[in-house]
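stage 2 :: seqdesign
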């Protein structure tokens, strides 16, 4: 009678088929808007300041001397391109401005009031890719956003840019990402999500999964296992909203339908 997903994304559910059977689908629309935004900067700071490399060096060598491989760069003064300015993207913008970064953004539904309040400009995706030192993705996955980042527009990116994805793996064409990294267009990537990650978990050997394994071996790629949402507070909120969705459906007043 009801499908209640314990997530914001619902691309794992055939919503149209469910609707054809009269089965509503409810999601948890906003449990991790701060959680994922904070994690995004965790990925970025790890890449910009070589935190993991430096920490692992000390643990593995017991040597307290820094070396040239640990040299990073300041976020202050850099341009961050935020693709998708929903709740998570807006929080990323606020954090970025706390670091003294310049913000450019793109969204198919730009919030010009928010842009004016926070002194940034909406631009087209090609413009954002050309201008940004760091590009971070916060848009939902839809058939239209499949391979939003692809070989054609990776070629537009500022040479040496950084790419962060804590949204959905399918937003990036994996082959294009590997190519961009090898060509030096993309200096480094921080990825909490991967294209075909379900197949990867199953140990499949599809072309995309093999490219994902190649990414895992690259020293300038930081990959985490879709854990950006995973905090004590966010998990509690997921449970609460899911239960509330079920209760409201039983009461005849369904909420958070997709």
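stage 2 :: out
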């Amino acid at each position: 009678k009801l499908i209640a997903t314990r997530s914001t994304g619902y691309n794992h559910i055939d919503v149209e088929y469910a609707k054809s059977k009269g089965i509503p689908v409810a999601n948890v629309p906003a449990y991790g808007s701060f959680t994922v935004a904070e994690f995004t900067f965790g990925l970025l700071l790890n890449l910009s300041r070589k935190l993991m490399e430096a920490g692992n060096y000390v643990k593995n060598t017991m040597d307290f001397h820094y070396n040239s491989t640990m040299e990073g760069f300041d976020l202050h003064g850099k341009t961050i391109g935020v693709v998708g300015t929903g709740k998570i993207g807006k929080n990323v913008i606020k954090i970025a401005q706390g670091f003294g970064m310049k913000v450019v953004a793109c969204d198919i539904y730009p919030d010009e009031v928010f842009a004016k309040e926070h002194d940034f400009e909406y631009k087209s995706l090609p413009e954002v890719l050309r201008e940004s030192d760091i590009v971070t993705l916060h848009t939902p996955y839809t058939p239209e956003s499949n391979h939003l980042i692809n070989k054609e527009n990776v070629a537009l990116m500022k040479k040496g840019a950084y790419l962060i994805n804590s949204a959905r793996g399918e937003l990036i064409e994996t082959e294009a990402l590997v190519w961009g990294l090898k060509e030096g267009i993309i200096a480094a990537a921080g990825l909490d999500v991967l294209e075909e990650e379900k197949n990867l978990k199953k140990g499949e050997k599809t072309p995309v999964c093999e490219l994902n394994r190649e990414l895992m071996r690259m020293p300038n790629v930081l990959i985490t296992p879709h854990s950006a949402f995973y905090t004590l507070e966010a998990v509690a909120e997921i449970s609460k909203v899911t239960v509330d969705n079920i209760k409201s459906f039983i009461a005849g007043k369904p909420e958070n339908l997709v």
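stage 3 :: structure notes
- The chain is about 40% helix and 15% strand.
- The mean pLDDT is 96.
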